Request: fold
Amino acid sequence: MNYFLDTNILVLYLRQHSLVKNLREIFHLEISPNELFTSAICIGELKSLALQNKWGIKRTLAIDGLRNFMIVVDELEEMVLERYAEIDAFSQGRLEEKPLTGSSRNMGKNDLWIAATASILNATLITTDKDFQHLHTHFLEVAYFDINQN
Reply:
């Protein structure tokens, strides 16, 4: 299985939050043949959080350490660009071949890139962000976890 970790899950990894233990048990993360992915966009978001919140050197260095056990996708290939366009159009209710039920949803641009990349990798997106839920089963599998219930 392929799993894609959203930025909020990476923050929990860095904080050694109890939800990470649960995720490891549920999905058998970090156990072959499962593959863990994230995006350079998520790493950039983490580095921004580190600067804004004045994280210490230990946690800042831990961001780079994430590369030791997951694949960081840092290229936007043509398939990702096309999927980004499809997901954005779908979220706005303007993708003819896949009508959106309900009202349109404005997604952040980084979230669009994250969803497009996870979709092309055929990876389950693990997140605590509800903004991806309308994409579940349409473009990718979304495993949403409520951080307040863990």
Notes: The longest helix spans residues 78-91. Helices lie at 7-15, 18-27, 40-52, 57-65, 78-91, 109-120. The two ends are 24 Å apart (CA to CA).
